[in-house]
Write a sequence for this structure.
């Protein structure tokens, strides 16, 4: 069963200017830079691995965020303060943008002019033991335009916002569509969906979406997704208890690619279509991993972080999108020999 993250939200040390960000060198077998979230003693929240392989603590945050297509900036959320942060990597500067809802699950348009996010609303509830707790629902999908500063609501639920949980947004390569996952259990709406932004129309692509693990291929006609179930909902048996498939979004025909690692979630596909990457659970350990889609290493799992970097342990937690984002120079081979 997938682990979920409960992160205590507070002001970001980096934004507030409360001392220098923490750095730590971390060897990785891939080039580029990473955003990810972690649950660690030295700082729970968002982290950046830069081009020099230094680990930088950004501060406690609701989501590790996403890089812009050019890699020069990224966006991540500030938590229940209903703000997101735009970070300029070259100038080392931040900009706060207020929102109507707690933002998360960021995905940039291919041209870098806008990004989509899920708006999350929090309510106070009481658990079975009579203790107060925070409850959230993922009821709204927005697109933020950097040039105009406008937040466009593009989807707000199948029945009512408070009954839907949207996550794992992915812009299509041409920027006209959004993939998302509706994760409500025991509902016919659960699965992977395709949203046509201009037409405001919804189409279901697959009933069982591997807990929201999917990404686009560069042709814009296919997606790659992980699932642990057969079409009838029964669980797959095998080494990884699941498979990666390629799915044609028009014909709905799917092609089996290779076994998926057990508990490999939140996957994304690099813009060039060469790699799958995501968050891999190994017993009590957590790592970030890459799987080549082409070449001699096709289907092989390459772990790029050590377990102590994430250090999630036995923590029980919730988050909008705790999975990593990766950027490397287009046209280069990021796998170090």
């Amino acid at each position: 069963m997938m682990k979920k993250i409960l992160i205590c939200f507070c002001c970001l040390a980096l934004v507030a200017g409360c001392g220098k960000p923490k750095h730590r060198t971390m060897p990785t077998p891939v080039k580029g830079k990473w955003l990810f979230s972690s649950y660690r003693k030295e700082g729970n929240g968002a982290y950046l691995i830069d081009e020099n392989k230094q680990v930088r603590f950004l501060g406690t945050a609701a989501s590790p965020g996403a890089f812009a297509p050019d890699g020069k900036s990224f966006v991540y959320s500030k938590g229940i303060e209903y703000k997101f942060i735009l970070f300029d990597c070259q100038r080392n500067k931040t900009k706060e943008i207020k929102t109507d809802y707690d933002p998360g699950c960021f995905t940039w348009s291919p041209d870098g002019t806008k990004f989509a996010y899920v708006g999350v609303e929090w309510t106070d509830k009481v658990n079975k033991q009579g203790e107060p707790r925070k409850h959230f629902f993922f009821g709204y999908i927005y697109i933020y335009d950097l040039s105009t500063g406008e937040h466009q609501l593009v989807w707000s639920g199948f029945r009512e916002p408070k009954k839907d949980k949207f996550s794992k947004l992915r812009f299509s390569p041409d920027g006209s569509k959004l993939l998302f996952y509706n994760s409500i259990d025991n509902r016919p709406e659960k699965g992977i969906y395709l949203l046509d932004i201009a037409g405001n129309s919804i189409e279901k692509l697959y009933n069982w979406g591997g807990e929201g693990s999917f990404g686009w291929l560069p042709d814009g006609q296919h997606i790659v997704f992980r699932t642990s179930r057969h079409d009838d909902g029964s669980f797959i048996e095998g080494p990884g208890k699941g498979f990666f498939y390629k799915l044609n979004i028009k014909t709905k025909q799917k092609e089996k690619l290779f076994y998926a690692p057990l508990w490999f979630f939140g996957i994304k596909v690099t813009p060039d279509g060469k790699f799958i990457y995501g968050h891999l659970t190994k017993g009590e350990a957590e790592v970030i991993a890459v799987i080549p889609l082409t070449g001699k290493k096709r289907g092989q799992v390459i772990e790029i972080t050590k377990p102590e970097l994430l250090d999630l342990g036995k923590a029980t937690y919730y988050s909008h999108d705790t999975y990593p984002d990766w950027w490397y120079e287009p046209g280069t081979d990021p796998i170090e020999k």
Remarks:
- The chain has two helices and 25 strands.
- Residues 1-23, 312-321 have pLDDT under 50 and may be disordered.
- The first helix runs from residue 13 to 16.
- The domain at 13-206+304-327 is CATH 2.120.10 (Neuraminidase).
